[in-house]
Amino acid sequence: MKVNVLFFARSREIAGVSETVLELKAGATSQDLLESLLREYPLLKEITGSCVLALNQEYLAQDEAKALRDGDEVAVIPPISGG
Amino acid sequence: MASGAKQTLVEVVQEPLKLERYVDFVQDDGAGAIATFSGVTRDNFDGKRVVRLDYEAYAPMAEKKMLELCQAAHERWALKAAAIAHRVGEVCIGEASVVIAVSSAHRREALEACAWAIDELKATVPIWKKEVYEGGKVWKENADARQAMLAASQK
Q1: pLDDT tens, position by position, B9-62
Q2: Which residues, in sequence order, are CB contacts of B75 under 8 Å at separation 6+?
Q3: Is B126 close to A10, i.e. CB distance below 8 A?
Q4: How many domains does chain B have?
Q5: Which residues on chain B are in Cβ contact (under 8 Å) with A11?
Q6: Domain tally for chain A?
């Protein structure tokens, strides 16, 4: 299945792109996606401790392994600083 | 721009924010109070001279979270209307990056909801600012950002 991944702020600068598409095995979870992201963009390791993922515009808890589906949108969310 | 069934307006925009647009939106003949908040770029931070702030948003999710925030405010206080707008891109000194307007029959509700809304926005809405100062740039982090805890607390 294909999952769209979006990067913002520092994660976007480190990844060097604002979005990408990851090909994952059926049944993959948000944790599998994170592992696959870190293989593709190893430099992201330096910030993953402070980032969370959002799945289809809802935050996931830090260690949450949520089942993904084809066409899902996952965003890498560094510490926010709006306002 | 997104509006809910309750009188609510939320938007993430590129262009300069005009307070009147949001005051007009929350204007209601039954409202005796309109409270507003404008968050404005300040020219210094920790002794550094700030030139501007560069804002970036996960716009669709930011609008969704701002809408949820307005709906929660409507549930918590007897409000006539609420509007929240956040700007993205370069925001120069003295310009507003965020504007909130809330109306209610009496002042207390509007004032409390307005103060609560900016705190919630800073803690939960996926928007980032990079501080551009003389001699460097840095991504800021809100001290009260709690997006990590948010998902866990909803379980």
Answers
A1: 999 999 999 999 999 999 999 999 999 999 999 999 989 999 999 999 999 999
A2: none
A3: no
A4: 1
A5: none
A6: 1
Nearest CA in chain A to B61: A57
**Segments forming the whole domain that contains residue B52:** 8-153
B107 is in an annotated binding site: yes
For residue B89, tell me if it sits in a domain. yes
Question: What is the number of helices (H) and of strands (E) in chain A?
Answer: 3, 5
Q: What is the pLDDT of residues B60-117, one digit of tens each?
A: 999 999 999 999 999 999 999 999 999 999 999 999 999 999 999 999 999 999 999 9
Q: Which of A54, A59, A82 sits opposite B127 (nearest CB)?
A: A82
User: Cα B154 to the chain's mean position, in Å?
Assistant: 22
Reported ipTM: 0.96
Q: How many other CB atoms are found less than 10 A from the CB of residue B37?
A: 19
Q: Do the domain assignments include residue B13?
A: yes
Q: With CA atoms as reference, report the closest residue to B36 among B78, B122, B91, B96.
A: B96
Write the CATH number for B122: 3.90.1170.40
Sign (positive or negative) of CA dihedral B137, B142, B147, B149: positive
- B2 in a domain, yes or no? no
Domain containing residue A69: CATH number: 3.10.20.30
